[in-house]
Amino acid sequence: MPSALITGITGQDGLYLAELLLAKGYDVHGLIRGQNNPKRQLVEKLLPEVRLHNGDLTDLSSLLRALRDAAPDEVYNLGAVSFVAYSWENAHLTTDVTAKGVLNMLEAVRLHCGYREGSDQVGGVRFYQASSSEMFGKVQESPQHERTLLWPRSPYGVSKVFGHHMTINYRESYGLHASSGILFNHESPRRGPEFVTRKISQAVARIHLGLQDQLVLGNLDAERDWGFAGDYVEAMWLMLQQPAGDDYVVATGETHSIRDFLDEAFGQVGVTDWTPYVRQDPRFVRPAEVDHLVGDASKAREVLGWKPRVTFRELVAMMVEADLEATRQGW
Ligand code: NAP
Ligand code: G4F
User: Whose CA is nearest to atom 6 of ligand 2?
Assistant: First the structure.
């Protein structure tokens, strides 16, 4: 039975990936941080087969301990401070976790595998790094692909660039089977409520049910290439099944503005003009914006045989329906 260790198991992608790997017969381990993480119960209830290990990406010895106890064939490094807006206010923390945390995990894998100077292979463990389309930032060409110049626009984006290049460096320096998935925005009913898509789907459900009358947002003109998280974790797994590590863009190839998302989401509850419900507030406008993202995933399609299944319209409908149900049930 193959085994995998997932950091960020409590997050959106961690949960979908754990489900996918369990369905494939993996022995799944997850790294969980904090002395009383409120999401522990969620993971234990949803995925009782997953074995949790205490640890933090900022603490190298805890990563070594988790690797020793889990003895994984594959490591998926999904843990991060992942909210871009938060990263300006917490730039040091973001750097410690989202940038240096990647180095800690890579170094832990290298030490765990007993790498010795002079040997050309770090060992059997395969490594996945959760890189991001935020690295493209002030985009230099469209659509963005694996060789597009990186121009990050936030402490989060800068940290992801560090992790991305460190992953490539460990592949080139130590022969580590390390892959970097440059994933464009992916969403689901499990998306954190701080991200714009979930903020909208929750608000639409509450407005429809008479529990809220206003939705306050920032920049409505930004464009994102939004896909479904359940499709994207499959690409992560496919990367680690290849003969060698590499970098892949994972995206739908379609872009939509926040206004488009509002149109679709309010449309789900029969509202054609959402302007009376939506207010803009500079509080939610970022110091530097990523205006336009759209990915070219031809390499993932050709090499991995991956393609997205869920369309933009289906994704929005799925999220609004789930929030309507959750709000009705009082979850
Ligand atoms: P998420 O829901 O925000 O999950 C982040 C995870 O990181 C949580 O499990 C969190 O644990 C964990 N974490 C935070 N600080 C940590 C630390 N110090 N040590 C260990 N774990 C820590 O993010 P996601 O949407 O699933 O994304 C997964 C990864 O993909 C992230 O690295 C993100 O930056 C990247 N990514 C996401 C997207 C996207 O559109 N979703 C696109 C590109 C890349 P707690 O529960 O303890 O906070
Ligand atoms: O939903 P967002 O916060 O996602 P963002 O910044 O694109 O980052 C997400 O995707 C990245 C991949 O490209 C990941 F790496 C990252 O971890 C995260 O998962 O914001 C999307 C857009 C932005 O342009 C933002 O300015 O929505 C705009 N927006 C407008 N009003 C808002 C709001 N975003 C949020 N979160 N809240 C608002 O009220």
Answer: 84
